[in-house]
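Troubleshooting log. The previous structure file for this entry was overwritten by mistake, so regenerating from the original sequence record. Sequence copied from the archived sheet and checked twice against the printout by T.R.
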Amino acid sequence: MHSKRLITSVVAIPLLVLFISMGGAFLFAVFISVVCILALREFFRIVFASGEKNRSLVLVLCIVTFLISLLMIAAAYRNSFDLVSGLIAFSLMIGGLISLKQFHAYPSVLQDLRKQLQALIYIPLLLSYLVLIRNSPNGIIWIFFLLCIVFSGDSGSYYMGTYWGRRKLCPSISPNKTIEGSIGGLAANIGMGSIFKLFFLPVLPWGYSIIFFLAIGVSGQVGDLFESELKRFADIKDSGLILPGHGGILDRIDALLFAAPIAYMFKTYIFQC
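Regenerated output below.
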């Protein structure tokens, strides 16, 4: 498992650096769009893994979600975040219209619509914040800043929990996660964030920066547990197999999804940079 994680990272990291720094804002938005579609596919696999479902209806909802999601990412690329929320409302209207025809024969259509709306909020909406950050001043640096904090926390939690973890953090959702691992992850968030800030963003005040590192770390861990909760409910171990040693796309970005809006809020309204 460790060797697979290492090999995947060696291959994926240079590609990630390329899409973030060398392709411009447009290529980054395209990259996020691809990630979004792959993550949505995994999400629907999880939430529709069991229970009663109308396959043709689910297919229609998935297609509508894919199309709306791409439009949401495009709107974020154009810095039109009001349009992003408008597209979510439009998708709900479409789903409501579909439900009127389906409800008599298939009352569970409302559960399917709930899953579709959750998909739009959980994945494309939260990914849109990455596009907004990338398009903002010093956007490239801030994307790397966020990724370094999140990924270091993930690694810190994994290795600290593996070798020194004793007390369970949330056993009903993720039996392998420990309090020691969580603390190790937060320590890694602060350590990596401090190093990055020192070299690349020295103007940021230290007090707010430490709060920022902890906020990113906590939100990332909540995002990780939330995805684990989805998989636990569906009795699925990994969201996919596309990343050997890491699982699926959703397994890799679960913490980033919850951390991205926090980073955007701090950058825009607290650091104001």
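The mean pLDDT is 89. Archived copy saved in two places this time.
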